[in-house]
Write a structure and sequence with these properties.
Helix content is 31%, strand content 29%. β1 and β2 form a beta hairpin. 30% of the residues are buried.
Length: 400
């Protein structure tokens, strides 16, 4: 009996302490974090946090209904570690990172300091997962984006996260780009990373006050995704055009299965809008007689959404003409995008990684000549999209 009494008392001592646990009202729940360059090359970190009073739902006397759904707080330091630690001097609650969904890094920071120190710190932090979305902020600061009250969502981080998930969006990435992607591409796949970009629609407008939400003109406080930010190892070096970004998403299979697309009519007057469905991609690099060939095959279906061209889809000739226009445009777009990639000498399509897996012996012999191999790479394209549906009508009204 004495033995069991000792075990019981010991258990009470071990279980009784709650000093390592935080109550909810002691935590500041973060939804996003931004990183900018400060004066004298310091690091400014902006935290976007849930406003606990607003989350109360405006109960009697609480005033939650009239408050912002989120607040931002800014801290500065010599590096990101010091900036985050200094935040405790201005906050009455402990920073809680586990619900953070987005990391925003300014273009200036990514160009001048790179992203290694940020990724290294956040990957080590015990509360942080590296599966949250990563964005590079174009032509403004991460703080400016986090301080924007957007018209359709409760916070700017929620807004840009939603932009990546919109069905039929221009870029239409399946999962966006995450810090996890960047680390894997950079260190696991020996591949140059690309990251989603964000910018303000109206760069001249300030929308840091909740009063802007009463404006009917939503563009003043709207954000949008840009072309992808291109990195050479840890440093931002360029921005891909939207066409090149879309091509990258399709070829690397990062695109959604259904995606919106537009091409011009043959005479340049008017547009053809359609959905690409059930996209099948085969992208295969191969070394043959010391020559690198990159073969890309695309197949899928077309659902027509709108057409300003005078093409009669009630005839086989018209259907073939439409398919030819779309296939040729897709072929030229992807050919141009991959050509731009090899001219940059940055391998963001992951060609080296595929070669090392598929042709290990040839790659071992040729890898020291990668620069020349890549520069002289031959691109072979085969694109075949077929019209599945012309929409609710076959021909347009013109001439009828």
């Amino acid at each position: 009996m004495k033995f069991y009494s000792i075990i019981f008392l010991t258990s009470l001592l071990l279980l009784g302490g709650c000093s390592g646990r935080n109550e909810l009202n002691e935590l500041l729940i973060l939804t996003g974090m931004g990183v900018d360059v400060g004066e004298n090359n310091t690091v400014i970190v902006t935290f976007q946090a849930v406003n606990p009073k607003a989350q109360a739902g405006g109960d009697a006397g609480g005033g939650g209904a009239s408050q912002a759904q989120s607040y931002t707080f800014e801290s500065e330091g010599e590096d990101i570690i010091e900036a985050v630690f200094n935040a405790s001097d201005i906050l009455s609650r402990k920073l809680f990172f586990s619900h953070m969904s987005s990391l925003l890094i300014s273009e200036e920071f990514a160009r001048e300091r790179g992203i290694h120190e940020v990724s290294d710190f956040l990957e080590r932090h015990y509360e942080l997962r590296d599966s949250y979305l990563l964005f590079i902020i174009k032509e403004t600061t991460a703080a400016a984006i986090l301080n924007t009250f957007t018209p359709l969502d409760t916070s700017s981080t929620k807004n840009i996260e939603s932009l990546t998930k919109v069905t039929g969006g221009t870029l239409s990435l399946k999962d966006g780009t995450t810090l996890e992607n960047t680390i894997r591409w950079r260190f696991g796949d020996d591949r140059d990373p690309v990251v989603m970009g964000v910018e303000k629609v109206n760069k001249q407008e300030s929308s840091t006050n909740t009063e802007v939400l009463n404006e009917i003109e939503g563009n003043k406080s709207s954000l949008r995704l840009t072309g992808l930010a291109l990195f050479d190892k840890d440093y931002l070096v360029d921005w891909l055009s939207m066409k090149d970004s879309i091509a990258w998403a399709i070829v690397t299979k990062e695109s959604k299965d259904v995606k919106s697309y537009m091409v011009k009519c043959p005479d340049g007057q008017g547009t053809i809008g359609f959905l690409l469905k059930e996209i099948e991609v085969k992208a295969q690099p191969k070394i043959v007689d010391e020559q690198l060939n990159y073969s890309i095959e695309l197949e899928g279906h077309i659902n027509l959404q709108g057409m300003a061209c005078t093409i009669k889809l009630s005839t086989e000739q018209g259907v073939n003409e439409l398919q030819t226009i779309i296939n040729e445009e897709m072929k030229n777009t992807i050919q141009t995008a991959v050509t731009n990639a090899k001219e940059s000498q940055l391998d963001y399509y992951g060609i080296k990684n595929l070669l090392s897996k598929n042709q290990p012996n040839e790659w071992k012999q040729m890898k020291d000549d990668w620069s020349s191999l890549y520069e002289n790479m031959v691109i072979e394209m085969d694109v075949n999209f077929y019209l599945e549906s012309p929409g609710a009508r076959v021909d347009n009204n013109e001439g009828q």
